[in-house]
Design brief:
The protein has 258 residues and is mainly α. The protein has three domains: 1-51, no CATH class; 55-138, no CATH class; 164-258, Alpha Horseshoe (Leucine-rich Repeat Variant), CATH 1.25.10. 73% of the residues lie in helices and 0% in strands. The radius of gyration is 22 Å and the shape is elongated.
Length: 258
């Protein structure tokens, strides 16, 4: 087993989700000093994150910044060249751990006078960028559970950019997994005031093939009181080709509009 493959699985090992070839990973670690060091480093950081009384000093944040900056540079380069996916699994896993580590550091220092310093403000901005990077990366993974995790991560971004909103809309329209599409509808609620979100959801309620997704979209439309949806809901309610439960929900939505 190659070192790169092993290091991709170290994060899973920390969370107790190591793949089926865990024995091969252990055999490699037994003979590879470099991977042993990487495992020890990640394990130490993971343990520190679970400890409430560990102080975070400047050296800690500098070390995390040293690993963060290359990841952000790689993300920006990938975004500018429009290459997908933006991050391979190994980069995403490392970035996820950095989000936890830097978020912990920033959170610990928020209550201190140093929290208002330019350095801490810069660190918080970088953390925001990193969260967005990991979110977008997860939403492009092959695993549906990873994509759902990415959709969920979008809620941790205080001021998400257009990339996040568009990624959620693309997920709603094109993800092959019903559960991922349903999760994207929940995540889009915080952006219900955006015209693009309203328009896309109105279009999606007519084009989605899953009754569950259609019903969730009708609920979303009613919640945001989108009066422009009246003719769309009426057409759905009157269409005998539409699933009976969806037609009933569309009729309910019209009643809710009054």
């Amino acid at each position: 087993m190659q070192c790169e493959t092993v290091r991709q699985q170290l994060i899973d090992g920390l969370t107790g989700a190591l793949a089926d070839d865990a024995s091969a990973v252990r055999e490699h670690l037994a003979t590879c000093a470099a991977c042993q060091a990487e495992q020890a480093s990640l394990g130490e950081l993971w343990s520190r994150l679970a400890t409430d009384d560990v102080p975070i000093d400047t050296a800690d944040t500098d070390r995390m910044r040293g690993r963060l900056d290359p990841l952000l540079a790689a993300y920006d380069a990938g975004r500018m060249t429009s290459r997908a996916p933006w991050f391979r699994y190994s980069g995403q896993a490392a970035a996820a751990l950095l989000v936890l580590g830097i978020g912990f550091a920033v959170g610990r220092q928020t209550a201190s006078p140093a929290a208002a310093s330019p350095e801490m403000q810069t660190l918080r901005a970088e953390l925001q960028d990193l969260r967005q990077m990991v979110t977008l990366s997860l939403m492009q993974q092959q695993s549906a559970s990873d994509r759902i995790k990415g959709v969920s991560w979008s809620s941790q971004i205080d001021s998400p950019g257009n990339d996040i909103v568009q990624a959620l809309l693309d997920t709603l329209n094109h993800d092959p997994n019903v559960n991922v599409r349903l999760a994207s509808i929940d995540a889009l609620e915080r952006f219900a005031d955006r015209a693009v979100v309203r328009q896309t959801t109105l279009e999606a309620v007519r084009t989605q093939m899953s009754p569950l997704v259609q019903i969730a979209l009708i609920d979303f439309i009613v919640k945001m009181n989108e009066q422009a949806a009246r003719p769309i809901l009426q057409a759905i309610a009157d269409d005998p080709k539409v699933h009976e439960a969806v037609r009933a929900r569309a009729s309910w939505g019209l009643q809710m509009f009054g």
